[in-house]
């Protein structure tokens, strides 16, 4: 800075040495150049330098929001761009998987720059909350927009995490080999009719942990363990792969029936890839337990990081995620259902999946997932569900 001022004093020396502040210095310089009828090369260069040095004071006014996200969906970029533009905010993102987000937050401790944490699945949100990685907030906007079943239980200090989109844990079946009536509930995956037909990803994966944890609330621990035991006995192969792999395995005939999150199937339904379209043609989908407690719904959600240095802006971002605009981004971009009350969507794949009709979903709070996770994992170990 000193060198720059010396240079400018050489180019336009009159009384500039007496100026004591950078702001006054640049004001005088700007006026001087504007009053001149002609510009020398030196004055142009000096003006450019002055503008460059003045720029940081403008940039300093732009707020910065640091987001640690396990949402690995490219379509989410529109979410961030819209908020950044509307609020003059620069968003820095750390994108990794859920385990990576939690590990980094723990390693950084109180020095963490994270303001917002976005995770996928209630089991992961519950674990992060139990590990003390979130800061409770009090937001009338979120309390009004997000149904109680899709957020953590409120305390005197506030609420720690909120769901912002939902996905159904559905059953897909091979239309040539399996009757829909044989797989219209989660419990029927353990029935004799499905011997040698069942495929899933690991039982310990958070998507399955969440389903089985809520099942404990619906039918009790003993019956849940019996279902898990029956599923293990009905496996077509050992659990492996992700949800898309299960759909493809059902279409190929390797499996007769499988569990998947709804957005994986919707993604294939919207795909222009002929191979994906061929898979979709061979599988049917069931929203389980319509005659009992309803289909299991899981969430993707977020929270304010415990050590955020910018908690007000972080809360504002979470409130934005509950807005109709952001909720439609979730639906259109990643084939998820909105969580916020009263938001209407127009996603052709989701409509086709449900036949354009409403389906019965469970109403149990997703926060119960956290309290049942350890119990369910012990069940999985006992029955050999890897």
From TrEMBL:
<dbReference type="InterPro" id="IPR026045">
    <property type="entry name" value="Ferric-bd"/>
</dbReference>
<dbReference type="Pfam" id="PF13416">
    <property type="entry name" value="SBP_bac_8"/>
</dbReference>
<feature type="binding site">
    <location>
        <position position="264"/>
    </location>
    <ligand>
        <name>Fe cation</name>
    </ligand>
</feature>
<keyword id="KW-0732">Signal</keyword>
<keyword id="KW-0408">Iron</keyword>
<keyword id="KW-0479">Metal-binding</keyword>
<protein>
    <submittedName>
        <fullName>Iron(III) transport system substrate-binding protein</fullName>
    </submittedName>
</protein>
<dbReference type="InterPro" id="IPR006059">
    <property type="entry name" value="SBP"/>
</dbReference>
<feature type="binding site">
    <location>
        <position position="263"/>
    </location>
    <ligand>
        <name>Fe cation</name>
    </ligand>
</feature>
<comment type="similarity">
    <text>Belongs to the bacterial solute-binding protein 1 family.</text>
</comment>
<dbReference type="GO" id="GO:0030288">
    <property type="term" value="C:outer membrane-bounded periplasmic space"/>
</dbReference>
<dbReference type="GO" id="GO:0046872">
    <property type="term" value="F:metal ion binding"/>
</dbReference>
<feature type="binding site">
    <location>
        <position position="72"/>
    </location>
    <ligand>
        <name>Fe cation</name>
    </ligand>
</feature>
